[in-house]
Design brief:
It contains four helices and no strands. The chain is mainly α.
């Protein structure tokens, strides 16, 4: 069965929103864009994992996780711990929807 990546993205955005609580109102635009990019990388990895090394996948995922964290801490009122929690919630949401990516996160 094909993955519905729009649903994965929507669930990941909800996870990020819930993790950030009231800070979401400030960060929603940048966070949504970066969460979409993270989901895009997950989709790319799922489609290409047989032709990618584990290091390539790890590098791509790490870059996107760091980018999301950096976007979030750029907003006033969102500290490192909150950003880290939001990244973790977002990634866990993606992995919940697409468990075959568990080894890559």
């Amino acid at each position: 069965m094909a993955t519905d990546w729009n649903s994965v993205r929507d669930a990941a955005v909800v996870a990020g929103k819930e993790a950030l609580g009231s800070a979401w109102a400030t960060a929603s635009s940048g966070a949504t864009a970066q969460i979409s990019a993270l989901v895009g990388i997950a989709e790319y990895v799922q489609g290409n994992q047989n032709s990618m090394s584990a290091d390539e996948v790890s590098h791509l995922v790490a870059q996107q996780k760091t980018a999301l964290q950096n976007v979030l801490i750029g907003y006033e009122g969102i500290g490192f711990a909150d950003a880290n929690n939001a990244v973790a919630a977002t990634v866990n949401s993606i992995l919940s929807a697409v468990p075959e990516l568990l080894g890559f996160a």
